[in-house]
From TrEMBL:
<feature type="domain" description="F5/8 type C">
    <location>
        <begin position="33"/>
        <end position="172"/>
    </location>
</feature>
<dbReference type="Pfam" id="PF00754">
    <property type="entry name" value="F5_F8_type_C"/>
</dbReference>
<keyword id="KW-0732">Signal</keyword>
<dbReference type="InterPro" id="IPR008979">
    <property type="entry name" value="Galactose-bd-like_sf"/>
</dbReference>
<dbReference type="InterPro" id="IPR029052">
    <property type="entry name" value="Metallo-depent_PP-like"/>
</dbReference>
<dbReference type="Pfam" id="PF00149">
    <property type="entry name" value="Metallophos"/>
</dbReference>
<dbReference type="InterPro" id="IPR004843">
    <property type="entry name" value="Calcineurin-like_PHP"/>
</dbReference>
<dbReference type="InterPro" id="IPR000421">
    <property type="entry name" value="FA58C"/>
</dbReference>
<dbReference type="GO" id="GO:0003993">
    <property type="term" value="F:acid phosphatase activity"/>
</dbReference>
<protein>
    <recommendedName>
        <fullName>F5/8 type C domain-containing protein</fullName>
    </recommendedName>
</protein>
<dbReference type="InterPro" id="IPR039331">
    <property type="entry name" value="PAPs-like"/>
</dbReference>
């Protein structure tokens, strides 16, 4: 709306000062009636390039990051035919949001909400659409503060899914307040589901799953080789799903080498079983935050993939958290049968440069913890603590060649890692399926 105002001719009965005052009051009143117009000039785009996640993706070419990359021809697309679906962006702590612009593809939402949250769990509604018709929706005059913003679709406008070329969030970026406080627990294990069930007394993964569930953590990590032997989708359904699948929705997995053996294609069964849980950013590697921790989940089968390495560098450059953990299948250092795996060294160098605190691995079927060390295996106080936790259910491996800086090794006892993390520290226990603590790690302060 264009506003025009002009003063009447000057007369002896109407002083110029009164006319000017009236004009200013008129314009001010109109601006107050249209707050979104009054604040539009101050709007700053704060979402471009920020970390994004989604409930699902149609395939890896339509990842959630595509809606925030500033490229008009790329887009996020959800799985087809399913309600509800959501797309979420991390704006940084305490961002203030005044405007959200949505550019829909043909697969639009007939009904959706725009919501904001400080913790990614409790959401406050900023806008609500019940009769959407696609194209562009520009929500202005909003007042919201939080870290995470999401578009939550409840009814599709077509028979397909939801698809957005762009989600543009405007306001004031976050990062000016201290990180959230509090502690949380994570359960982690690798090398999990052998082809057996609870009907066999020697089958271990039903026991590690029961233990993991009793601990009741905030979420679960897996460090690859989730399903043996060739990680077929049918095997995931017949074995893993019957045990660790009970808390699948709270699991954040990575693939191992056995996930690449699937005759249907490398990672085919893994991707089909976990879906967006394992591909929240459209790739088999991703990141997320909890408290003052940043977690990076990587696919060590493809550490020679330049795209993954560049993504890792970019992700770490954006990180604002004080503590950093990474997890992937192949350990750089191990005293087990597979031994040291140099494929992980370039990634260690990147993580070490970013002051990473903790690396979790599987591959060798034993438990082992190392003192802080650098990528070259030199003990140093500012090094990375590595834990091998491959005792989730697959047949144990013997300890063969003890590596420098290895502080504790356990083989033959199935169990899980119980990680206790705060905003500034971390420690852990290795708990056996007999509920006994087999080892306790030191308490370390984050770098």
């Amino acid at each position: 709306m264009r506003l025009n105002a002009s003063a009447p001719p000057r007369s002896t009965t109407t002083p110029l000062s009164l006319v000017l005052t009236a004009v200013l009051l008129l314009v001010g009143g109109l601006l107050l009636a249209l707050p979104e117009r009054a604040g539009a000039a101050a709007d700053v785009l704060i979402s471009q390039g920020r970390p994004a996640t989604s409930s699902s993706v149609e395939d890896s070419t339509f990842g959630p990051e595509k809606a925030f990359d500033g490229v008009s021809s790329t887009r996020w697309a959800s799985a087809e035919g399913i309600d509800p679906q959501w797309l979420q962006v991390d704006l940084g702590p305490s961002a203030t949001v005044s405007r959200v612009k949505l550019v829909w593809e043909a697969a639009y939402a007939k009904a959706y909400r725009v919501e904001i949250s400080t913790d990614g769990t409790t959401w406050t509604r900023l806008a609500n659409e019940t009769a959407g018709n696609g194209a562009t929706d520009d929500w202005t005059g909003l007042t919201g503060q939080g870290r995470y913003l999401r578009v939550y679709g409840t009814a599709r406008g077509t028979s397909y899914g939801y698809s957005l070329f762009a989600v543009e969030v405007y306001g004031t970026p976050g990062g000016t307040t201290p990180p959230p406080t509090g502690s949380f627990t994570v359960v982690a294990a690798g090398d999990i589901a052998a082809q057996c069930t609870a009907s066999s007394s020697s089958c271990a993964h039903p026991k590690t799953a029961a233990l993991a569930q009793r601990i009741a953590p905030s979420f679960y990590l897996t460090m690859g080789d989730n399903q043996y032997d060739d990680a077929l989708l049918s095997d995931f359904r017949n074995y893993y799903d019957k045990t660790w699948g009970a808390f699948k929705a709270k699991t954040r997995p990575v693939p191992g080498n056995h996930e690449t053996y699937d005759p249907a294609g490398s990672l085919a069964g893994y991707k089909s079983y976990f879906g967006a849980i394992a591909y929240p950013q459209g790739k088999p590697y991703y990141s997320y935050d909890q408290g003052n921790w940043h977690f990076v989940a990587l696919d060590s089968n493809s550490f020679d993939d330049a795209a993954q390495i560049q993504w890792l560098k970019d992700d770490l450059a954006r990180n604002t958290k004080g503590c950093l953990a990474a997890y992937f299948h192949h350990p750089l250092y191990s005293s087990g049968g597979h031994g040291n795996d140099p494929v992980s060294k370039p990634v260690w160098q990147i993580l070490y440069g970013a002051k990473a605190d903790l690396v979790l691995n599987g591959h060798d079927h034993h438990y082992e913890r190392f003192a802080p060390q650098d990528p070259n295996g030199r003990a140093t106080a500012d090094g990375i603590v590595e834990i091998v936790g491959g005792m989730g259910g697959a047949e144990p491996y013997d300890i063969e060649t003890v590596q420098p800086n290895s502080q504790k090794r356990i083989s033959g006892s199935y169990g899980v890692l119980k990680l206790d993390l705060t905003d500034t520290t971390y420690t852990w226990q290795y708990v056996g399926t007999d509920n006994q603590v087999k080892d306790s790690g030191p308490t370390y302060t984050c770098h």
